Model the fold of this input.
Amino acid sequence: MPMAADEIEAMIKAALPDAKVEITDLRGDGDHYAAHVVSTYFQGMPRVKQHQAVYNALGGRMGGVLHALQLTTAVPE
Done:
């Protein structure tokens, strides 16, 4: 069963409480999403570490229940 966008958002916000998260269902199938995550937690981190933090927040669901996630991360301006 695919993950719902609000479930993805909730998991990211649970791990990164100050995060602003925008989730887009790219195909309308609940299986291919884009996520834009902005958090002060990312300050000073290389992009790879930022992405790893988001994937860790998803608790191993990537590649399983969550098939594809196009991810962009940023720090607040």
